[in-house]
Amino acid sequence: MAAMNRLLRSPSSSLSLARRCLSTAAASETVKSQPYIHTPLATGQDPKAKTVQWVFLGCPGVGKGTYASRLSTLLGVPHIATGDLVREELNSSGPLSKQLAEIVNQRKLVSDEIILSLLSKRLEAGEARGESGFILDGFPRTVRQAEILDEVTDIELVVNLKLPESVLVDKCLGRRICSECGKNFNVASINLKGENGSPGMSMAPLLPPPQCVSKLVSRADDTEAVVKERLRIYYDKSQPVENFYHSQGKLLEFNLPGGIPESWPKLLEVLNLDEHDDKLSAAA
Description:
The protein is an alpha/beta fold. The chain is 45% helix and 14% strand. A five-stranded parallel β-sheet has the order 2-3-1-4-10, sandwiched between helices. The protein has a three-stranded antiparallel β-sheet with strand order 6-5-9. Strands 7-8 form a two-stranded antiparallel ribbon.
């Protein structure tokens, strides 16, 4: 827990490292209903030269990892998912691996202290490699985590991805993993009719290649009852976090209009990144 202790108690160690690596001016105005305005790039400047400190929020199954990963490639900053940090530690011989294994086996929630310890270690490793920013995926999940994160770095923008609950349930129930190659797919075909003036929505399934079809498995906890309970818990905990960042003028609420082909260009537009056509084609 040394990394966690440094994170919480010593402004001269991991905090200062993270600040030197990730420091930037916070957004100064609310971005809920307008494009995110960032400093324009000079002519010919690579968008990867810009430092960003962004957080992606959203319900389970909304696609945080997909869009955060694409923007990570486009902007040249790491995509850091706390779930990945936990899995990496579980598969290592690190000091927290045994403790994490017990927590997972007992189906308990990983504590803030452990999550922040893993994040602190990841930020320090990134600083040593010369990383100049990040996109956090699914963290923070509580106001306490958000407050501690504020002590580590200046979050510039928080993108809150949204989908109707019925779509989220269908997407979660459609998730499949190839038991051989480990890749993720989704067999759900979303066709939501528009009602009361709201537009409809369609999302094509993400189908596996022929060699994976017979090897697809679903998560044991991807049942309708479990998915709805996870969503209920998320809504209860997420609203205070959204309010926390909204009060700071950093929250951008983005309603996904469809699948990746429809949503990706719109997301780039509100982030004011659509002018880099040569880079976007490479990221897509």
